[in-house]
């Protein structure tokens, strides 16, 4: 640890995000996940002679929304380019991307790590199409095969390239978390890492603290989980420091993270940058984004998570932690706001959403969008408690029934006769029976042991099946005793 303290890591991330379109970026083929291999393809995807790409307007709109959400300047004119390289799952022999004139530049993302806030720069957001997928099989046996599935070819992507502003695995983790949340909020992508909708490459180097010049970087490719990103960055920092401390020289190379060993391993040398021979895509005209179109995109943009967190604290009086939890996804934030409106008590609604509802959803393996309890019904339950028609204990019994049936609290209360008993005549009768049945405790109370009142409250609640109004019970008990 003392050795590591001598050095400063320098980290930048390249985040590849699949846009949430129904069709590919340059043709009408579907982007659906899990289709049989090589079925969602056409002459354009396959790069057949004479096939011409046609840019999807929806892809551009989503890319613009992503750029705006990441505080980037959207360029009025950008150019598509051919990025030339050979790979078996790249049938055209090039990838259509953007090079020196990208869609958007000069953005930023704010993160918080260990109580400290930091702004991470976003160098650029550019559009491109995805390559296919190679599946390697039998490499441990004598028969070795590689299968190529071109369904993914032409899937619309954006690449979000950060400035080298991160200095730890925790900062890299926080940055990727914020980028993912923001892009999900604006509906740009599902960011489902299991389906490859979000992939990340990390550029890592180290330098002596105080040095201005960057060290030699290594690129760790295809990190497909937040945990692996943090682990890979931290391990790569340790590896490079160990090399420098032993008098060696860090090589510029591409590496992969081995999840079994927890180490990065060399994949190929990048000592000399690969020449992709970029040149403007001759089959696509420059992309122009007018001021009117950009204004339309700005006006349609939803509230972002950071702004929503602040509003939840200011308008609803929530704690910062609660606001963070309730803005984790756009759907969860929407649910809470609707529940709070129906409940008339935002903080109570927040507790129910974060507590009982979240527990039931987790147990059932459901997402908030699949909740059997609507936001209006949850708010209705909280309102009944606030109106004194239900005790908290009784509400806890009713809620699982709401989750199982999808019914409102009012419907279940009416059917099962579970409304709170506040009538003093009915409560007085129950209290009289409890007092008569417990003379020893009555004597203790009248002898000065006032804490025994809790025993009587418990007995009355038990006799009333939890339906007695606790406040009324306390008052009447003291009067009668």
Defining traits:
alpha+beta; 481 residues; Arc Repressor Mutant, subunit A; single chain; three-stranded antiparallel beta sheet; nine-stranded mixed beta sheet; 16 helices; 3 domains
Trace the largest sheet across and list its strands.
2-6-7-10-1-11-12-13-14
Unreliable sequence segments: none
Overall tally of domains = 3
DSSP helix fraction: 40-55%
Radius of gyration: 30 Å
Distance between the termini: 68 Å
How many distinct beta strands?
16
Spatial shape: elongated
Question: How many strands, which pairing sense, and closed or not: the largest β-sheet?
Answer: 9 strands, mixed
- The mean pLDDT is 89
What amount of the residues lies in strands?
A: 15-25%
> So how many helices?
16
**Coarse structural class:** alpha+beta
Kindly describe this structure.
The protein has 481 residues and is of the alpha+beta class. The chain has 3 domains: 292 residues, no CATH class; 114 residues, no CATH class; 57 residues, Arc Repressor Mutant, subunit A (Orthogonal Bundle), CATH 1.10.10.410. 40% of the residues lie in helices and 21% in strands. It contains 16 helices and 16 strands. A 9-stranded mixed β-sheet has the order 2-6-7-10-1-11-12-13-14. Helix 13 packs across helix 15. The longest helix is centred in the middle third of the chain and has 20 residues. It is elongated. The N and C termini lie far apart (68 Å). The relative contact order is 0.09. The mean pLDDT is 89.
């Amino acid at each position: 640890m003392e050795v590591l303290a001598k050095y400063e890591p320098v980290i930048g991330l390249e985040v590849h995000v699949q846009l949430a379109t129904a069709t590919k970026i340059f043709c009408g083929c579907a982007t659906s996940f899990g289709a049989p291999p090589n079925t969602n393809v056409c002459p354009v995807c396959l790069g057949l002679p004479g096939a011409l790409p046609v840019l999807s307007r929806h892809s551009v709109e989503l890319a613009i929304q992503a750029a705006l959400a990441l505080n980037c300047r959207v360029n009025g004119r950008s150019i598509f380019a051919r990025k030339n390289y050979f790979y078996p799952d790249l049938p055209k022999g090039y990838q259509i991307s953007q090079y020196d004139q990208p869609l958007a530049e000069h953005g930023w993302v704010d993160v918080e790590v260990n109580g400290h806030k930091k702004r991470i720069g976003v160098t650029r957001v550019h559009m491109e199409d995805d390559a296919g997928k190679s599946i390697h099989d039998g490499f441990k046996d004598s028969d070795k095969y590689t299968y190529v599935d071109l369904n993914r070819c032409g899937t619309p992507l954006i690449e979000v390239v950060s400035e080298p502003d991160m200095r730890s695995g925790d900062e890299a983790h926080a940055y990727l978390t914020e980028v993912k949340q923001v892009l999900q909020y604006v509906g740009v992508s599902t960011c489902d890492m299991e389906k490859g909708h979000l992939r990340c490459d990390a550029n890592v180097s180290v330098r002596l603290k105080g040095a201005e010049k960057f060290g030699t970087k290594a690129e760790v490719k295809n990190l497909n989980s937040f945990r692996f990103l943090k682990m890979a960055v931290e391990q790569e920092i340790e590896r490079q420091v160990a090399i420098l401390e032993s008098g060696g020289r860090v090589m510029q190379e591409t590496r992969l993270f081995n999840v079994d060993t927890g180490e990065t391993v060399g994949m190929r040398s990048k000592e000399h940058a690969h020449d992709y021979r970029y040149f403007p895509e001759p089959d696509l005209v420059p992309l122009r984004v007018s001021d009117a179109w950009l204004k339309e995109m700005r006006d349609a943009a939803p509230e972002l998570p950071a702004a929503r967190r602040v509003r939840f604290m200011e308008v609803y009086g929530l704690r910062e932690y609660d606001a963070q939890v309730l803005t984790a996804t756009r759907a969860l934030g929407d649910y809470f706001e609707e529940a709070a409106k129906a409940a008339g008590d935002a903080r109570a609604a927040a507790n129910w959403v974060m507590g009982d509802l979240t527990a039931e959803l987790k147990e059932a393996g459901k997402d908030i969008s699949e909740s059997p309890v609507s936001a209006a019904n949850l708010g209705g339950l909280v309102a009944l408690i606030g109106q004194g028609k239900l005790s908290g204990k009784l509400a806890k019994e009713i809620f699982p029934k709401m989750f199982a049936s999808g019914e409102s609290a009012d419907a279940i209360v009416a059917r099962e006769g579970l409304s709170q008993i506040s009538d003093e005549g009915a409560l007085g009768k129950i209290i009289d029976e409890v007092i008569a049945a417990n003379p020893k405790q009555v004597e203790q109370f009248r002898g000065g042991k006032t804490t025994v009142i809790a025993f009587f409250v418990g007995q009355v609640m038990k006799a009333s099946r939890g339906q007695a109004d606790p406040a009324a019970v306390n008052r009447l008990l003291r009067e009668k005793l």
